[in-house]
Design a protein that fits this description.
With 411 residues, this protein is α/β, with parallel strands linked by helices. It has 14 helices and 11 strands. It folds into 2 domains: 168 residues, Rossmann fold (3-Layer(aba) Sandwich), CATH 3.40.50; 205 residues, Dehydroquinate synthase-like - alpha domain (Dehydroquinate synthase-like, alpha domain, Up-down Bundle), CATH 1.20.1090.10. The structure holds nicotinamide-adenine-dinucleotide (NAD) and zinc ion.
């Protein structure tokens, strides 16, 4: 880790105390509702004042349509007498479309202004990772930060992004170009919400779980490999155990890893993401983030086996694990591989400084590299395509991720 230059006496180093509140529930709209209510603090420190905080509930439109839990939460908040719900539940389009439309953020800011929220008010955001990113960005910039309670509703957002401290929307055709670092007031991972997820989205979160276990915990990687079929068939006990393990690894990295706001060159949690972030816009967002991450992690595992001594048999196991989870190893956007390679320069620009990409020497042994052997990466791409062609996914989907969903709501 680079230590800031402490020798100059004019430089004052200081830190800001932060609290991360993660709660795990099975029915936040039902028996576990108190977990949500107890997170709301009064809007005034004056004990004589009767002051319920102002609250807005924002929900992913697809979640609200699929699950009665959203309406139930709003109703119970109203009835609780401990929250001043200042507007009806606001629906935000689900998926990448909300991150691709700056007007969505603008309209959310207008709503905050109309409702006269202040820095002691709460926004409760319920939805998938994309909608949470959009909502989180609006909450972070309004009044320089309104308290945000995230209720992630996808496996990916519960296993990874929901617990994180980043939010962003897409701009200039690039992922996450506009955004902030902001610690959420709280995160509630509620298993009940996952029941309405389509199968395609249900498996997406496990690519991030594989990613973080490859970086940090070989035993968890083994467990995901063993449990892959049970996860793909939606065994909730097994799936939630893996989500919890992944979430905890992400949380530990953020709260104890020493670089929550990613000021250093290395960003290990972005393993496999240089190509994933490129593939998403190249596929016109037909490919999901979780699918792109599976492809990106598989590609970098094969590359690591060609260049950094990562055992080839382990790279094959990673690919096999993704296939048994029902995740893709290839997308037609990869056919223009030279264009995908442009993701390396985008990744470098986003971080600043030297190109720094995390690769693997072994499972649980990450390695930061500053150069990519582009010929070896091309070979890794060819090898990945061979493996993808001979892999048989559990539900027999076509090999290409972006051909899985005929609709393009995510654009
Ligand atoms: N901020 C971060 O640190 C971070 C980290 C990783 C990923 N991300 C972002 O997260 C996004 C991907 O998130 P995601 O994988 O959660 O997908 P998503 O938000 O795109 O959701 C997938 C689809 O499922 C729907 N949906 C969500 N929950 C549902 C439910 N319970 N029932 C029915 N439908 C539901 C959504 O409306 C959407 O159509 C990407 O934009 C990615 O960049 C952010
Ligand atoms: Zn990711």
């Amino acid at each position: 880790m680079t230590v800031p230059d402490a020798r100059d006496p004019r430089d004052i180093h200081f830190s800001v105390p932060q609290v991360h509140r993660l709660r795990t529930t099975w029915e936040v709209a039902g028996d576990d509702f108190a977990e949500l209510l107890d997170l709301l603090q009064r809007s005034s420190d004056d004990p004589a004042a009767s002051s319920s905080p102002k609250v807005l509930v924002w929900a992913d439109a697809e979640v609200a349509a699929a699950s009665p839990r959203v309406a139930a939460i709003a109703k119970r908040l109203c009835q609780s007498g401990r929250a001043d719900l200042v507007a009806d539940v606001r629906l935000i389009p689900g998926g990448e479309v909300s991150k691709n439309s700056p007007e969505v953020v603008e309209s959310l800011l207008s709503e905050i202004n109309d409702a006269m929220l202040d820095r002691r008010s709460y926004i409760i955001a319920i939805g998938g990772g994309a909608m949470l990113d959009t909502a989180g960005y609006a909450a972070a910039i309004a009044h320089r930060g309104i308290r945000l309670i995230r209720i992630p509703t996808t496996t990916l957002s519960q296993a990874d992004s929901g617990v994180g401290v980043k939010n962003a929307i897409n701009h200039f055709g690039k992922k996450n170009w506009v955004g902030t670092f902001a610690v959420p007031w709280a995160v509630i991972n509620d298993a009940g919400f996952l029941t309405t997820l389509p199968d395609r989205d249900f498996v997406c979160g496990f690519s991030e779980a594989v990613k973080v276990s490859l970086l940090k915990d070989p035993a968890t990687f083994e467990r995901i490999c063993e449990d892959a079929a049970a996860i793909a068939s939606r065994d909730m006990t097994v799936a939630c155990r893996v989500i919890e393990a992944s979430c905890q690894m992400h949380l530990r990295h953020i709260t104890q890893g020493g670089d929550p706001f990613e000021t250093l060159e290395a960003r290990p949690l972005d393993f496999g993401h240089w190509s994933a972030h490129r593939l998403e816009p190249l596929s016109d967002y037909a490919i999901r983030h979780g699918e792109a991450v599976a492809i990106g992690v598989a590609l970098d595992c094969i590359y690591s086996s060609l260049v950094h001594g990562f055992p080839a048999s382990d790279a094959e196991r990673v690919c096999d694990c993704f296939t048994r989870l029902g995740l893709p190893l290839w997308d037609e956007a990869l056919d223009d591989f030279e264009n995908v390679l442009g993701g390396l320069e985008e990744f470098r620009q986003h971080l600043g400084g030297r190109l720094t990409v995390t690769m693997l020497r072994g499972i649980g042994e990450p390695l930061n590299v500053h150069q990519i052997d582009v010929d070896a990466m091309r070979s890794a791409g060819e090898r990945l395509k061979e493996i993808a062609l001979r892999s048989v996914p559990p539900r027999g989907e076509v090999m290409s991720a972006s051909r899985r969903s005929p609709d393009h709501r995510h654009r």
